[in-house]
Amino acid sequence: MKKNHNHRVFKLIDKYVDAPERYSTKVINTNLSIPANFRMLCALTGVAPVKILSDFMWIVSSSYVKESACIKREAAIDYFIKCSYGQDYYHKDDLLNMLKELEAVRVVDEMMTGCSGDKLRLFYCFKNMQAPVWFKKWFNKSKRLESISVLDQY
C-alpha cells in the first residue's frame, strides 16, 4: 500500500517538477545609464558594473547558495530597507519578514546538498510549489491595484 501511495504522490507533484515560468528566474535585457564615477570605480577595481548589480540582486533575494556570507546578506538587506524600496506597499517589518522567508527557503536548499533521487525531486517540487504561494501571499497583502500578472512585467 505504501508503494501505491508514493506513486500517487509523485503523480500529483509531477506538474511541479518545473517551476511555472511566471515564477522562474528571467533574463531581462535593459539599458542602464552608468554614472561616470561608478564606471571609474569599476574600472579601477576590475569589477564589471553588471557583476555588482547581479550580485546584489542574488544576495538580497537569498538566491545564492553558500556563496552569500551572512554579513553580505545583512548589508544588502540593510541597503534595500534604508532606500525604502517597497515601502509604498509594505511596512518595513513586512519587508523584513518577506526577506526572512526567502532566506528560510535558501537554508533548506543548502541542506539538500548531497541528496539525490526522490528526495531531491520532492524538494524541487516543493520549491516550485512554494514560489507562487509565497508571491501570492505577499501580493495580496499589498496596497497594489494591479492583477497578479504584474509579475510578468518585472
Task: Give a verbal description of the structure.
- This protein is mostly helical.
- The protein has one domain.
- The protein is built from 6 helices and no strands.
- The mean pLDDT is 84.
Helix content: 55-70%
Q: What is the tally of helical segments?
A: 6
Low-confidence stretches: none
The largest sheet, given as strand count, sense and whether it forms a barrel, is: none
- The 3D shape can be described as globular
Query: How many separate structural domains?
Result: 1
- Radius of gyration, taken over Cα atoms and rounded to an integer in Å: 19 Å
Mean pLDDT: 84
Distance between the termini: 46 Å
Estimated share of beta-strand residues? under 5%
Secondary-structure element pattern, one letter each: HHHHHH
Structural class: mainly alpha
Task: Give the total of beta strands.
Answer: 0
